[in-house]
Amino acid sequence: MLTYAAIRQEVEVLPLSEDPRVKPRAASFFQLAGAADEQLCNEVLQTFNEPGRYSGDNGARWLLNNSQEIELRSMSAQGAAEGAAVSVFLGLDYVNVDIDADGNDEHVYRLTSVLSSQEHQRLMIVGEQLQRRPELLNGQARRCSQIDPSGSCDSINTMIRYALTARTPDRIAGEWAFTRQDIWRSTTADRDSRRLIFIGRNQPKRNIGSATGAYWSLYRIRSRVLAVAAPNQDFAPPELMVFAPEQRRNGILQCVLMPVAWHN
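The structure corresponding to this sequence follows.
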């Protein structure tokens, strides 16, 4: 497993006087701040350095948009609250895609939630299309009925939402290790990575995603699919983390992308 510290390189980020996200992203906006596979990461960089097509309030979407992005389609609109955790389900997205180029489609679910007024996303990758296998979700229906007895706990969409927020061992059987386990702990929780990410205790310096603070998008680069996370906070230049999802292990951190210039 490659950690953040193993591939993160020091790069210069030039200052800007204004936030660049008020207009579509300019070409050649990103630079490579670390790579496990140089050839692959240069292809990723080339893809992300296309001119952007989005400008608006969602900074992560502004960062993540490019022509190789795989579209996830909405399964629902407004969801329900999850107990007293101040977590509101906003949207559930879905796509079936062959992630590892083995000829078989995997099924990817993405949940957008608001936790303590902060929007973030979670991914789940499974081998079965859950809409057609509701029996795999029986445990989530029980969780729902315990947490929110008045909710629509027999709804497939509701059960999938609960599956996305479940902790181990309540995750779906057969879920890929990349989303079942905590990718951030295995990638950034080692001592060297923590030294790079934090100035001091609870004082972050590097603006990367986390288990409770990331937006996720999927991209087809070469013959396989990569998952890219952008941070949902704005306190330093953002860093995009590029992962190769794996079925039986957490997945490999491939690249770190950063802006060439960013506002103060």
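Residues 208 and 231 are 5 Å apart (CA to CA).
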